[in-house]
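Worked problem 6 (solution included).
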Amino acid sequence: NFRIKEPDSIIKKMKNKAIGSNWADVRKAMFTSEEIAASDKRVAILASAITATRKSQKKSQRKLELLSGVKQPVISRLENGDTNPTIATLLKILEPLGKTLSIVDLK
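Solution. The predicted structure is:
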């Protein structure tokens, strides 16, 4: 259950910093620590699955770049959990691995 705080509260929390705030600051202002932890967990699960699949298929990050069109540094950041990828990026990476995303019922 993500909830985005009102823009005014974000600005006040950031003490009216001008342009140039980094993502970590914006993220802390927009989301609770629980929401951040849940998001980080989801990214870690995806990263682990992508890394394991890529390695089991004996594909390097560079080869995956060539097959997916996603730059190798982006793949590396994803696998290290240093980025929050878009669905489009995930789909581009998953396709040459023979995988996709799926929407399923929660248990």
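Discussion: The longest helix spans residues 33-56.
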